[in-house]
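seq:
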Amino acid sequence: MQNDLDQNFFLPLSAQALQQLSELSNLLNNTHLSNQKVVGIACWQIWTKRNSLIFNNIQLSIHLWRIGFKEDFTLLMHRVKEEDKQKYQSWIDSIF
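struct:
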């Protein structure tokens, strides 16, 4: 059963999306934010969008997820060192 699940799970990513993930990884390696925090924001947004569908009957869209991710990521930038803020702002602006 697990092998069937592994074979059926496929997440297609465009070359642009892979490039953006690579840029983020390089950025995170050079600053104090961790991949875990960024993944946490992404997962939290998936969770909240799922709850919106279940409890408020709001249709899901990648656009709404991206808006929520950008808002939460922007809040996280308040914890970033001043010299690193422009790097993060450039990255978030480049993907939205």
